[in-house]
Amino acid sequence: MSENLAASRVLVLNSGSSSVKYQLLDMRDTGRLAVGLVERIGEQTSRLKHTCVTSGDTREHTGPIADHDAALKAVAEELSRDGLGLDSPELAAIGHRVVHGGMFFTEPTVIDDEVLSEIERLIPVAPLHNPANLTGIRTARALRPDLPQVAVFDTAFHTTMPESAARYALDPKIADRHRIRRYGFHGTSHAYVSRRTARLLGKDPSEVNVIVLHLGNGASASAVEKGRCVDTSMGLTPLEGLVMGTRSGDVDPAVIFHLARVGGMSMDEIDTLLNKRSGLFGLCGDNDMREIRRRIDEGDEEAALAFDIYIHRLKKYIGAYYAVLGKVDVVAFTAGVGENAAPVREAAIAGLAGLGLAVDPELNAVRSGEPRLISPESARVAVAVVPTDEELEIATQTYALVGKNN
C-alpha cells in the first residue's frame, strides 16, 4: 500500500477573498479532528478561531494577518499544537473548494500547473471567487509541495445538464467565444444532499428524482434526476435564480440598460446593486431570515413583503423543476435557512397539495441536526430537511481520487 493510501486524513480548505475556512477529517470514520476559520485577512482586526474536536479545546487569536500565506501558516501552527500538523504522515491530501470550473472540469482534479492555469483563465466568469481559491491553492502547495492537492469544483455537479438547460438563447458563436452558459453553483451541496436524501428514503440515488433547495445567504435550486443534475437556478454567475440575502436573483436584463441609460449608474455601481444591495437586504434592509421573521411578527409590512417575494420566487422554481423532472419523489431543504427556518418551508410548500406536496406542522417545527421527513405519511411526494455537509463532500471526493490515482 502506498504512503498516501495508508494515510487517512484530508484537510479541506475553502479560501475566500478575505477568509479561510478549514476542516481536518479522518476518512476512516469521516470524523472531524479540527475545524477553524481565519477572517478579515489583510486587516488589523484579523481573527483566527481554531477548535480541536478531539480535545474540545478552542483557541482564538486577534491581530493583523497580512495575507493568505500568513493565514495558512497560522492554521498550520494551530494544527501542529494539537499534534495534527501538515507534516504528519497521516495527512493523505488537501482538498480545495474551487467555485468555478467551467466546462473543462467535470470532476475532482489533482492540481498541477496546467490545472492552475485553467482555473486562472476562468477568472473573468468568477472574478470574486477564483482568485481567492487560487491564492489558497498556491500557498498550500508551497507549504506541502510533495502532497496531493485536489480541486473540487462547485460547478462540476451541474455539468450533466443537457444543452437545452445549460444554453442561453444567445448567438452560439458569441456565447462560446466568451464562455457564456449556465454553469450553476453550490454543486458540492446539491450532490451531497441529493444522495443523502435518497438514503433517507431507503433508496439508491439512481432511483430517486429530487428537487434540492439550498437556502442560505446565497440560494439555489436544482432538479436532480436519478442522481444527475438536469437543471439548476444559478447561471453564468451566482447572481441568477432565487431571491437571496443580498443578490436579486432573476431580473429582466433590460433593468441593467435602464439603470445605465436613465439612472446614470456605472457598470460597477449596477454590479454592486444587484450582488450586494438587493435580495432581502435590498427589499427590507435585513438579510437575516430570523430578523425578518421577528419583524413580521411585530407587524412590519416591509419585512412581510420581502418574505412574500422570496417565497413567490421559491414556489416558481419548485413548480418549474417539477415540470422539468415530470415525476418528483422528494423536495429537500438544506443550508442555513432551509435547515432552520420552519416558516420558510411551510410557506414554500403551502398551496402545492395539487402536486402531492404537504408539510406536517408538528414535524416541521422540530429542530434537529439530523436528516428527517417533515411531510405527512399520506403525502404523494416527500418533503425533507437534510443538513448539508460540503466539507465532507469535498473530503470524500478528494480521498477517493487520491486512492484511485495510487
Structural class: alpha/beta
Average of the residue pLDDT scores: 93
According to DSSP, the number of beta strands is 14
Uncertain segments are: none
Which sequence of strands runs across the widest sheet? 5-4-3-2-1-6-8-7
Judging from the principal axes of the Cα atoms, what is the shape? Answer: globular
Kindly provide the radius of gyration, computed on alpha-carbon positions and rounded to a whole number of angstroms: 22 Å
Strand content: 15-25%
Sheet having the most strands: 8 strands, mixed
Count of runs of 4 or more consecutive helical residues:
16
Run of helices and strands: HEEEEEHEEHHEHHHEEEHHHHHEHHHEEH
Through-space gap between termini: 9 Å
| Helical residue percent band | 25-40%
Short description:
This protein is of the alpha/beta class and 406 residues long. 39% of the residues lie in helices and 20% in strands.
Describe the protein in words.
By secondary structure, the protein is of the alpha/beta class. It has 16 helices and 14 strands. The strands form 2 sheets. The chain has an 8-stranded mixed sheet, with helices on both faces. Helix 12 packs across helix 14. The longest helix has 25 residues. It starts with a helix and ends with a helix.
